Amino acid sequence: YFIQQKCPLYMQSLEEELDVTGSRESLFSCALTASEEAMAALEEGILHAFQQCVYYVSKSLYVCLPALLECPPFQTERRESWCSAPQLPEELRHVVSVYQATMDLLRQFRVHPEIASQVLAYLFFFSSTLLFNQLLDKGPSLSCFHWPRGVQACARLQQLLEWMRSAGHGEAGERFFRKLSCTLNLLATPRAQLIQMSWANL
What we know:
By secondary structure, the chain is mostly helical. It has eight helices and no strands. Helices cover 72% and strands 0% of the residues. The protein starts with a helix and ends in a 6-residue tail after the last helix. GO terms for molecular function: GTPase binding.
């Protein structure tokens, strides 16, 4: 916009002010170079801010995410009659609070929607990758490899995906957590049912 519309007007006023003739191309070249340098500096600043943002948010997620795979036993939670919906489990509330705080800050500082989407996409990718790698690294030592806990871990992930849908990021959540969701679905399937299933169904 600046180069196509503002730059010619700027050069015209500069020519009139300095009484310069025959140097329009030179002025345009200088303005174009200055604009490109400014854009490069701006892009570098945005990239640095993006990296720092996702770094510190990822550190918070790194602490609270593993609890989703190490679920406590099922408990009967007391609910008041006026509650319209059950509250999220504590280990899931910690994760959701990080996502929610990030979205609130992005809106508060009026971050461009495309950049905000990239920040959230990276956080979802980081979260799913961290949890999936933990499944591979720790294996049966995790409680979710035992069927009752596997059922609960799968339910926790579904609750997280449901929250993402309600927050307007359901498509991104489904995309980034698909592999983890499929794995937890297997862990939540009874052994007798798994034995009867074919490899194609698995």
